Amino acid sequence: MAVKPISLKKMEEQNVDSYSAVVVVAKRARQIMQDRIIQESFLEEEPSEFGVFDEIPVKDPEDYEEKDKPTTEAMDEFFDGKLEWRQADTLDL
What we know:
With 93 residues, the chain is mainly alpha-helical. It has a domain at 10-47 and 61-79. The protein is 46% helix and 0% strand. It has three helices and no strands. The chain has helices at 8-13, 18-44, 70-79. The radius of gyration is 17 Å and the shape is flat. It starts with 7 loop residues before the first helix and ends in a 14-residue tail after the last helix. The relative contact order is 0.20.
């Protein structure tokens, strides 16, 4: 599945500049990917081995389940207004 083109008008509706939007979506996509890896690891491992994430288990192609790409999911959340974020305060040095 390819990432769909987005309208700049949609981004303007969120009242955020494009650079901040890219950072927010990228960080959310990274969170989604980490959540998927952790969830799959917990489902496949025995409880005694929790917490050890040295390698990602190899999946059988027959068991493959197609999901949306993390960036697509993050962009959908962003444009639907489901993401909340705030900018960190800058320190004057």
